[in-house]
Design brief:
Layout: E1 3-8, H1 14-30, E2 36-41, H2 52-60, H3 75-80, E3 83-86, H4 89-96, E4 105-107, H5 108-117, H6 129-141, H7 161-183, H8 190-193
Parallel strand pairs: 1-2, 1-3, 3-4
Length: about 190
Amino acid sequence: MTSILVVCTGNICRSPVAEGLLRDALEARLGDAAPQVSSAGTHGVVGSGATSEAVAAAEERGADIRAHRARLVTPEQADAADLVVTMATEHRELLQRLPGMRDRTFTLKELVRVLESLPPPPRGGLVVLADRVEMAARAREAGFTGNPLDDDVADPLGLPLQSYRAIAWELDQWIARLVDGLFGAEQASAASEG
């Protein structure tokens, strides 16, 4: 089964929210064929739950992350993932140092921008996650820079709930674009076309 790993620092704010939102979006789009989604942190407090603010902000966007428990990313876990999506450049750079991870590791915003610069996947055709990731890696290697000054999702740790809500909204928007970039835009329903 294909898998996507989402990584931030502590695995208690950004990555659990992104994991929940991405899992829900992929399952809604692909059903049982959805890739498995998990998350981890570069400095996670192993076993901690997501912050109460992260849980609340995710729930407001329809994702239930109450059962989340933080874990540290391991080389084995990263290597097992078909795609690693990080919340910031510091996480991407750390994971890209691992053997074989350079072409499978992107920040969320970087990956979305790269995918949106490529031809879209064929409508109604079989889309292989590894193929789209490889195309994105080749585009990046060819010099695609996107907007390197805006590749990070801000860390809301220690900030009020309103900040978590803003981050959850931002993640929701970028994740919708990511799913479209990886698997193609959802086809409009017949009712909206008529």
